[in-house]
Design a protein that fits this description.
Shape: globular
Oligomer: single chain
Strand content: 15-25%
CATH superfamily: P-loop containing nucleotide triphosphate hydrolases
CATH architecture: 3-Layer(aba) Sandwich
Largest sheet: 6 strands, mixed
Number of strands: 10
CATH class: Alpha Beta
Number of helices: 12
Number of domains: 1
Amino acid sequence: MSIKRVRLEGVAVQPTIASILELVNVNKSFGGLVAVQDVNLQIRPKEIVSIIGPNGAGKTTVFNLITGIYRPTSGDIRLQGKSLVGLKPDQVLVRGIARTFQNIRLFNNMTVLENVLVGQHTQLKASVLDSLLRTPRVLHEEAEARKRALDLLGFFGSALIERQEEYAINLSYADRRRVEIARALAAKPQLLLLDEPTAGMNEAETLEAVKYVRRLRDEIGLTILLIEHKLTVTMGISDRIAVLDYGRKIAEGLPDEIRRDERVIAAYLGKPTTSDQNTHE
């Protein structure tokens, strides 16, 4: 499928700052279980940063902390220097962070277009009375929302525009993932969190996904934080990679540095590092 180049008007432009997102000594415990421990992370504007690690490492928990689904046991999470701790997910979305989920969460009995329109609810300004009376303001806002939703679908090519009136449940897995990303973009985020964007995709679909993730940064100027299990994808797409293991950040750096890091190799293969072996000798 060819990729259509479009300009998505209204996507938030990020100011020039040292970091857009900061996690400062973030901890999260569930009873006696420590899921995230002393995690520090900085994301700079227009970066693509990946969080990797074995199953159960705490990656999705970090996403849930950032987006307000969980509240940290301690530590702080800041967007452009302002704390997000204590905000509800809808408030975090309004602040400028949108996300997708590991398991796609579309409204399957709504059309493709309707799913993307739902993502624009935080951007609509008309009052309840305007909606009831169907005032010109409402009609104009609805027309603009529909136009922008089609632009967002068009980012992924013409196929989704052609299927805009189909129910989401009828789409392929890869197309449902694209619709979910389009819905997230509808909120005009500054920071987009992608939870395993290529999960369940074949090789061709994965390569296509890598292209549009890069385009989200290069053409729209988004900052992207992603979780990805396919290391070939992570190594090829990321500006920086942070590695979690048992809730702790054990490494962070450029892809080539992470590929050679003994602690990362040990976490994935379950083998002790040289330093661990020396400790036990």
